[in-house]
Structures are given as structure tokens and as C-alpha cells.
Amino acid sequence: MKRNNKYIISCPLAFFLLTYTAPCEAWNQLVINGENANYINWGITADPSGTHDITSGGIYTTYARNTQTGGPPVSEYNEPISILNGGIWRPLDAKSEIDAENLTMYSGSMIDLAYKYSAANGYTQENGYDPWSAATSLKTARFMEIDNGKFEGNIAFRLNMGTAVFNQSTYGSRGGKDSIYLNAPQIINSAEYPTVNVTLHYIIGNHFGEGMAGSNLYYPWDHQTTAMLKNKIPDIFGITNSDTATMDKFNVSGSGEYHLDGAINKYLLWTQVQQDDLNPQLDYTTTRMWSLVWTARRQNYLSQSAYSAANA
Predict the structure, then answer these.
(1) Bridge partners of 186?
(2) Does residue 76 have a pLDDT over 90?
(3) Helix or strand or coil: residue 294?
């Protein structure tokens, strides 16, 4: 957000307190070599029409300015953007924060933050990257704030859960992840769509839940032998500066099962998006948060590394 010509960045350790927004630094993220967006300069009044429609069935990749690192520390999309039914928006800005100031999401639309740092976009070991590891996830984590956005029906967001783990001392997370906040959202076409159903599609990688290398919250899977592990990733989705009547009309969901390799055995990972109202720093009359809660249970069959060693 920009206030009084200064950038106020929402710090992940204390998001959107009742009386102020905690300032912290925004920065450029990892640049993907050879990347090109389909559309550029959506963040400034550059297009004569001044508006942008992401059409039904269209997949639009964009930069707010003319390059993935162009413009101020926060990547701002100030021009009106409408994502129509079946449309997918993939902002490719290499920024830690992306703000959309005039966005409408119609039923059946999606915002895909995860595509930026994915194999489909060239983010692979073969291309010289260390994808979403506990040493690199802070360089690829992105946060999107949608200010005064308009929403209807069934919408979706696609996020990478990176390596983030819960940090009890700050009620934040340690390690990088993607997250989305709707600031002062508006519900449109409520006669046809009385509620907004938000589905969170999230990417679980090999280093999910490992935290941050070099910190006291670092839990590499190739060291794990415990029968059961539990944790959560706080505040992957939020609604802020709203009211109870509006927030009650947003239904947020997401779940899935995955397999991860431990030191010897594989783990079955169960995940679910749950509303989370335990942060004492937040006023839940104007704010609502959702976290990804997970449990990993050790299985009776070998991990890939243990299997390979046994058959060497």
C-alpha cells in the first residue's frame, strides 16, 4: 500500500493490526532468466483503454511495469483488472509484495501466484536454481494484497506453501510461502451469489515444512524418523479491514494428501485450510485469517533414498 507517497509494507510477523500497519522492508525477489510476460505495464496508466479484461479461458501472465523487477519496491497494479469466468491471472513480478488496487474477480476465475516460481516457468535444478528449498524460499515467497476488490461466486487462488513453519514467538512463520489478503473486500451480484466460495489450491514441494536453514526452526525431512509430526502455516489467506457480516459470506476451503520422504520411511501428509483466530495481536471483529494445518504420519514403507541405498 502507498500512503502519503510512502510505501507501507505489511510485515508477515504482525499483519494488519487494528490501529496500524507494521512497516517492514519490501524487496526484489529471484529473477527467472529468460522469462517474458504476455502483458506488461499493467501497473501504470499506460494502456489507452485504462482497463484490462482477463477473458474466459484466457491465461494472462503480466508485469506491473515493463520488466519483472521494474518499478517501486511494491509491485502495484493500479489500473482496473477484471478476471472473467474461466480466466486465470498469473502476475510474474519478482517482488515480495504485489498490490492490486482495482480488481474484480467473477465467478470461475483464479489468481495463480504459484506459477512464477514453478518448473513450468523454468524454475528447475536443471536451469541452475534450488527450487523452494529451506535456504532459498525467502527469495521466492510472495504476498498479494487486493485492496477494495470485488468478488462473486466461486473463485480460486493457487499458492506455493514453500518451506514455512509456525513461529510461536511471533505468531508468524519462518521460511517462505505465498499468501493472499483481501483488504476491505466487496461482494458483488449478491442476489445471484449470496456467498463467495474461495478455494485455495496449494503446491506442496519436497521441502514443505522444513522452515529456514540456519535458524532454530529448521526441520529437514531427510532427518525425520518421528512417528507423527504436526505443524501449521499461519495466515496463508486473510480478510482485513472488513466487518463480520461481510466476512461471514466468505467460505474458504482447501485440503489434500501428499507423500514426503523421511530419513528412512515415507510420510503421509494430510493438510487442511482452517480458520485461525488464535493470534492475540489481531482484532477478529475486522480481520479473519486462515492457516494451513498439517499432520504427517510415518508409513511402513521406505523413502526413496532409503530404498535406493538398500538396492545399491
Answers:
(1) 150
(2) yes
(3) strand
- Of the pLDDT bands very low, low, confident and very high (cuts 50, 70, 90), residue 124 is very high
Tell me, what's the pLDDT at 25?
A: 59
The mean pLDDT of the chain is 89
Q: How many helices, marked H, and strands, marked E, lie in the chain?
A: 2, 23
For 25, list phi and psi in degrees, rounded to 5: -85, 140
CA distance 144 to 100: 8
- If you write DSSP's letter for every residue of 30-82 in order, what string do you get? ---TT---SB--TTTTTSTT--EEE-TT-EEEE-SSSSTT-SSSSEEE-S-EE
What are the helix (H) ranges across 94-178? none
Helix (H, G, I), strand (E, B) or coil at 308: helix
Picking from 66, 69, 61, 65, the residue whose alpha carbon sits closest to that of residue 43 is 65
**What is the C-alpha separation between 248 and 288, in angstroms, rounded?**
10
Of 103, 178, 111, the closest CA to residue 143 belongs to 178
Cα separations in angstroms, 22 against 12, 25, 63, 281: 9, 10, 26, 11
Whether 121 and 98 have beta carbons less than 8 Å apart is answered as no
Inform me whether the pLDDT recorded for 306 exceeds 80. Answer: no
The tens digit of pLDDT for each residue in 156-194 reads 999 999 999 999 999 999 999 999 999 999 999 999 999
Mean pLDDT of 74-84: 94
What is the pLDDT at residue 138? 95
The burial of 239, by beta-carbon neighbours within 10 Å (0-12 exposed, 13-18 middle, 19 or more buried), is given as buried
> What is the DSSP annotation of 93-113?
--BSEEEESSEEE-TT-EEES
What pLDDT sits at residue 63?
A: 96
Return the number of other C-beta atoms located less than 10 Å from residue 243's C-beta: 11
Name the region of 148 (left: φ>0; alpha: ψ -120 to 50; beta: rest): left
